[in-house]
Amino acid sequence: MVNTPIRNRVFSITSFMILSIILIHMAVIPFLYQRITEGYKTSSSEQFISHNTEVSGLLADVLSTKSLSENRNDINDILNTAVLGGNIQFIEIQDHLGNTLSPADDITYSPETFLEDTTVNQNGDDIYYMQVPVRFKDLQENVSMLRIGFDESAIISDYTDIKEKVFYTLSIYLAVILIFIITITRYIHKPLYLLRDRSREVSNGNLDVPLGISSKLSEIQYLADDLEMMRSTLVDLAERMQHKATHDDLTNLPNRYLFNDRLEQSIAFASRTKNPFSVLLLDLDRFKEINDTLGHSVGDEVLRIISNRMHKGLRETDTIARIGGDEFCFILIGVGHSAAEVIAHKILELIEPEFEAEQHKLKVSASIGISAYPDDGENAELLIRRADVAMYHAKKNNLPLSSYYPDMDSDHYENLLLANDLKNSIIEGQFQPLYQPIINLLTGQVCGCELLLRWQHPTLGLIHPTKFIPIAERENLIGELTLSTISKHLHKFSELIKINENFHVSINVSPVNLIDKTLLNSISDILETRRFPRGNLYIEVTENSIMKNPARSAEILDEFYKTGIMVSIDDFGTGYSSLAYLQKFPICELKIDKSFVSDLTATSNNYPIVSATITMAHDLGISVVAEGVEDQEVLELLEAMGCDRVQGHLYTKPLDFEEMKDWLINYNNRD
Ligand code: C2E
Ligand code: CA
Ligand code: CA
Predict the structure, then answer these.
(1) Which pLDDT tens digit goes with each residue over 573-584?
(2) How confident is the model at residue 110 (pLDDT cuts 50, 70, 90)?
(3) 3-state SS track over 310-367
(4) Helix (H, G, I), strand (E, B), or coil: what is residue 5?
(5) CB-defined site of ligand 1, < 6 Å
(6) C-alpha dihedral over 511, 514, 518, 522, to 10 degrees?
(7) I need a labelling partner for 52 at 20 to 30 A (CA). Which of 28, 73, 213, 434 fits?
(8) pTM greater than 0.70
(9) Which atom of ligand 1 lies nearest, measured to the CA of 478?
(10) Distance 544 CA to ligand 1 centre (A)
């Protein structure tokens, strides 16, 4: 394949022009050369011949005044004088009888047989032979011939000279033409290449610098002008699009995207200059009512009026953005908590006066929450979150504004905010499963593991299930969470089962899950389509959750049992239910709560409880797992009591999938 730069050079205007000039001149120059040299040759030959014919005629005339028999000396003199002129190389007279007479003394050359020439440079002897008739006085009746050989070397060398000169002149002409063409095309090319380079920069997004190309060639100037116009239109368009992408259509204020960007910049700037700044979150009070009762167009008008008013109260360096329906966020540069409160009051005062929106006289109020960098958070999310917490606090306590402080009912608000994030975090896969092995005491083998979820929150870090499970239950997202966990990680369960046969994975199912029959069907479907052996999946339900609605629980657990999924009673001992009662449920295993196990000694109060539970469970055909086994003594006691399986830090803390695989392989290979 031809490489592109070479190809570009070959298929360029310069090369096309040079090539066509060369082609034209290849035809024209030989023609010109031929015409000039041949023209010269013909005209100079004609002149030479006619001149010499004239000379010969004159000589013949002079000779014809002489008598051949009487004036031999005169005739000889005439011939010798003619030769002395230098131009004649040969001269003789042949009489009518064919005798050669009176050859001149200085003849330099004499041909063997005389042959008259018709053109110059005939026979290659540099002599032009010709003869003219002479009638001597005594031989009037007979014609003698005067034969002369003229030197033609001068005219031949002139001709060669001229040919050379024409050749050089034409070559110089060709070279000049080529240099001219190259210069001209370069002159055209330079602005064209410049245009190309600048257009490339424009297409690479570098729109800011004007093209700045001027050329005396009008076509190129037109092209440059058009491109410049296109660039400025693009700049305009990009600016409008940028504005649209970063601003709210209704109020023309920066939107959430631009606000976040400004906040990040403010943090970067403040961390360098050690200057504080504050974030204000403003939420209009009862805006929903305006929207619902007076309509959306009044609502929109209210937002426009309010944002205009607030905007007027701020300095150039401050930012106000509309980040939600009736939520506005401010960044106040160089302002700490107390100054921010003053400004917040000012903003509220600006909002307060009555105004008219589509003929409705209205008055609105708002609540403001304030957080300050760096005291209340060093990242954008935390600052907004804390301003949000403060705003909720203000609303809840009927305050116009409130600054965040650490003891603010943060747990409550944090839960609210976590609830906000939960839905997305499930979709985004922020939940990670950990696995904790369960050991069969009879065989010493690992017989399964329990899946324990963690929430890897992007800003708050690791969140434990004790915190997020209740929120997920409250937000009605627990079913989605359980299902997405199974569906996302089922292939990992299969991998674990491959390492240890008869291995089961236990997943925790919340009481809310127990009411939801569709969850069971969904789990069942996933197992079916992925061909996961049902007997290898256990669900753990707490004793408490069963006792909340025993009849309904029995129904659902029955369904689970029928599909082949194993049911385990979790945290047994904390629900004050009797084992005899639990017998009604289709359970295969119970897990004694860690509060009974962790501190177990032969003399502790828990000892008889654990021991009796194991015995009774066995009597009912139910196997027993003790969780929270942290030391060897406890393990030995449990073994002595006949406990079937154990789980706890003695073996390992919950591990992530890769760690769990390694742990399993190591455990299997132990001596
Ligand atoms: P759980 O089902 O009783 O799980 C056992 C808890 O005990 C786990 O806490 C585990 O890390 C911890 N643990 C294990 N071995 C020991 C030990 O030797 N000593 C001590 N002190 N603790 C031990 P974790 O992971 O924080 O889970 C807490 C609870 O959150 C779980 O209690 C379970 O009820 C719930 N949970 C976890 N994952 C899920 C889930 O995916 N869905 C639902 N609905 N609940 C879950
Ligand atoms: Ca459990
Ligand atoms: Ca438990």
Answers:
(1) 887 667 777 788
(2) low
(3) HHHCCCCCCEEEECCCCEEEEEEECCCHHHHHHHHHHHHHHHCCCEEECCEEECCCEE
(4) helix
(5) 436, 452-453, 464-466, 469, 482, 485, 508-510, 540, 570-571, 594, 598, 627-630, 648-649, 654
(6) 90
(7) 73
(8) no
(9) 44
(10) 15
